[in-house]
Amino acid sequence: MTNTENNFYGLGIAPGLIEVIEKLKFTTPTPIQLKAIPIGIEGKDIIGIAQTGTGKTLAFGIPLVQRLALTTKGKGLIIVPTRELAVQVNETIMKLAPAGGMKTAVLIGGESMYNQINDLKANPRILIATPGRLLDHIERRTARIDDACILILDEADRMLDMGFMPQINRILRMIPKERQTMLFSATMPSSIVSIASNHMKLPVRTEIAPQGTASDLVSQEVLVVKKELKATVLLELLKKHTGSILLFTRTKRGAHKVAQALRNANHRAAEIHSDRTMAQRKEALAGFKSGKHRILVATDIAARGIDVTGIEVVINYDLPDDPENYVHRIGRTGRAGLKGHAISLATPDQRSDLKSIENIIRTAIPISTPENLPIAKFDAALPAFSTGRNSRGRGRGYRV
Description:
Number of helices: 15
CATH topology of the largest domain: Rossmann fold
CATH architecture of the largest domain: 3-Layer(aba) Sandwich
CATH superfamily of the largest domain: P-loop containing nucleotide triphosphate hydrolases
Structural class: alpha/beta
Radius of gyration: 21 Å
Number of domains: 2
Shape: globular
Helix content: 25-40%
Order of helices and strands: HHHEHEHEHEHEHHEHEEHEHEHEEHEH
Largest sheet: 7 strands, parallel
């Protein structure tokens, strides 16, 4: 390894920002930071393809703050898919922004418009927003983006999965064509290619891992369990794994049901899904980070919005509707160089759903058969695992 690969020196970062990075105790750049930061600082457009948990916020945050500090004109605009991700991106950017004497504003649904308008009156140089709330402010004339000189689309594939393409196109038409665009995504679907072709200037593509792959730091296993025995198996798993647990269900109703059952069994469990208010979701996430809640039950709304170091295990109580969401779910563990583990509970009729996930991650997931648990088997056999990527169908599994 060269000296540059061991630290942030030699990446073109200004001395003032280097001091901030050192105070924050960021010592070794991640692969995406190593590749993206110099490109971003040069002002070039970037398409960054990297797994979740690889340090993408610093990869675009450092160039953003440094380039904005070079001028008193223009602002940076960061678009993200979820409220939780917006809050967490802001937490990181706020640590860097003082180096350039900048303020930030977070524009998300579920929060007071009045407070956001007051934040906007302070003339922040950096806006972090979800698409819908940003457009609300623009329509009310409380925010403007016609002076945005740097645009960042974070978790772009997730935004498009959530149906935000019309809003993204509206936003892209409102901001100056002469700008720098940095797009970060875990996968590279055709919709992302379209954005790159129509709205970016000769973007430099940097890919840290094959799109759709899971982190090598995350070990994985599948337990085949009858639907009616999932709760029993879950309680046994929680006896074995005593650290922090992030548990995913397919539906918000299922998330509430599982969280309530865990609390009834004297487990410290909180829940995050679209039926919870923003204040409730913030409390749940803060409590999970602090250790007040050992278990956080979530739907896929949180698959890319939770940046918590030290999650011991991710449990897929339900396999995801979209097999690509499996990668984002298990990417919540095995972060910051730490090892993690993922356990998925599949019902006997979900063999094809598992195969779809294995095709996405390009590897077979071991099926575990512990003797002390009521384990079942898959129904009639299907063809063996294939490394092809044609299986993109949604799962047929039950909904809790």
